[in-house]
Amino acid sequence: MESITHKQSAFSLTDKTKEWIVFGICLLCLALFASAAYQKLADHEIFYKGLSKVSLIGGAAIYIAWLVPIAEMLICLLLLIPTTQKIGLYSFISLMTIFTGYILSMLLWTEKLPCHCNLIIEKLSWAEHLWFNAGFIALAVFALWLGKAKELIKK
Amino acid sequence: MKNLSLNIKKIALSLMVVGLVVGFSAFTSVEKQTKLAPFYYGFNGVEYQLIGSDYDPNNCISGTERCVVESPDDTNPTISVSAAASLPSPTGNGHNKQYDF
Question: B33, B73, B93, B95: which to substitute to probe chain A, counting the most A Cβ within 10 Å?
Answer without folding.
Answer: B73
